[in-house]
Amino acid sequence: MIVPINLWFAHAGAMTQLPALGIDIGRVIIDGGPGADTAFFGRDEAAVLATPEVPGAIDTIARLTALVDGRVWLVSKCALRIQERTLRWLEAHDVHGRTGIPTDHVRFCRRREEKRGHCLDLGLTHFVDDHPEVHRAIAGAVRHQYRFGSAVAAPPAVATPTWADVERLVRTTLEPAPVR
Question: I want to staple 62 with a disulfide (CB 3.0 to 4.6 A). Which of 52, 99, 146, 147 is the partner?
């Protein structure tokens, strides 16, 4: 049974949700290049582990993890065999150690639309994914959506071609409103 994580707190007499970030893995953290999702995992183990990181991903995720006090989850759609390879890739690249994301903050599902349930269970306020179908599925569940690696995105997602774009936009959502 999955228990929803309580990320709400009282602030100035109102209930406020703590920021929590969800991040896809394939072609968002692991650089798979063009092609089908997780196509880069169709190779032998050595080639899988040698697959590079998306430029800027790890350093940016580390800064964002600190910014939201560790409330970051990796949420990926893939079959069991790919889940196992993904976990080995994350370990081989020391992603958890380098970003500060706890090792138990990884969720998998078999279909893209199932990411919505993870978003709701985890109370995610921000989500980074490269697939437009995911953004359609999580509409209304996640306030801030970033379509990674694209210069074009359909609302409610915002296009974020690079990790620098993701970081800039996430930071703007977390800045306090100016006092007037």
Answer: 99
**Structural domains in the chain plus CATH codes:** 16-174 (3.40.50.1000)
Return the CA Rg of the chain.
Answer: 16
Residues facing residue 30 across a β-bridge: 26, 53
List all residues 6 or more positions away from 34 whose beta carbon is below 8 Å from its beta carbon: none
Rounded Cα distance between 2 and 4, Å, is 6
Is cis: bond before 156, omega within 30 of 0? yes
Query: How far apart are alpha carbons 55 and 21 in whole angstroms?
Result: 19
> Against a cut of 0.90, is the pTM above it?
no
pLDDT tens digits along 93-150: 999 999 999 999 999 999 999 999 999 999 999 999 999 999 999 999 999 999 999 9
